Amino acid sequence: MFARSASRLAQQVTHMGTRSYSEMAFTFASQRKIFYNAESVKQADVPSLSGSFGILPAHVPTLAVLKPGVVTVIENDGGSKKFFVSSGTISVNEDSSVQILAEEACVLEDIDLAAARDLLSKTQAEINSASGEEAKAAAMIAHEAAEELVKAAESG
Q1: Where are the domains of the chain?
Q2: Mind giving me the DSSP string for 92-138?
Q3: What positions does the domain ATP synthase F1 complex delta/epsilon subunit N-terminal occupy (predicted)?
């Protein structure tokens, strides 16, 4: 058993030497729009259910679930772009490619703060009027997303 594990580890370490440490093929899309399509970027900072984290080239392979919040993409020229995401998935692959697939996403500047605050009020009312655990849980999830949307709009 130990010999097999050591052999696998040796193969991984040998394979890691072939990875590119300076490039990261980054894909970021929602159901409605493709923001990046296998483009090279320096870094992506993402909110996940297990905590926010930054992704750089040669990041350890990872699968994670997006939580509502802001994705920041630092492009090769040093500029950055910020996006609000509602939920989705993050895949960081061994070849340094990264895919972020969001249920909903938009550029931070496109968020209407007044509309976001209105949505927050509506989701609070839905929590208060929910009958049953399932309806209350759904309303609480929508409320969490609305809270993060308001925070994103206020910071953008």
Answers
A1: 2-109, 111-155
A2: E-TTS-EEEEESSEEEGGG--HHHHHHHHHHHHHHHHH--SHHHHHH
A3: 26-105
pLDDT tens profile 72-129: 999 999 999 999 999 999 999 998 899 999 999 999 999 999 999 999 999 999 999 9
Tell me the whole-structure pTM to 2 decimals: 0.80
**Right CATH number for 2-109 from 2.40.128.110, 3.40.50.800, 2.60.15.10, 1.10.3720.10?**
2.60.15.10
Please tell me the predicted confidence (pLDDT) of residue 22: 61
- Alpha-carbon separation of residue 151 from 10, 139, 146 (angstroms): 45, 18, 9
Q: Closest by alpha carbon to 155, among 39, 41, 47?
A: 47
Nearest partner of 59 among 34, 94, 105, judged by Cα: 94
Bridge partners, 91 (sequence order): 63, 99
Measuring CA to CA, how many Å separate 50 from each of 56, 63, 86? 18, 11, 15
In this predicted model, what pLDDT tens digit does every residue of 21-42 receive, in sequence order? 467 899 999 999 999 999 999 9
Angle at 95 between CA 89 and CA 101, to 5 degrees: 15
Tokens read off for 29: 């899309």
Higher pLDDT, 149 or 18: 149
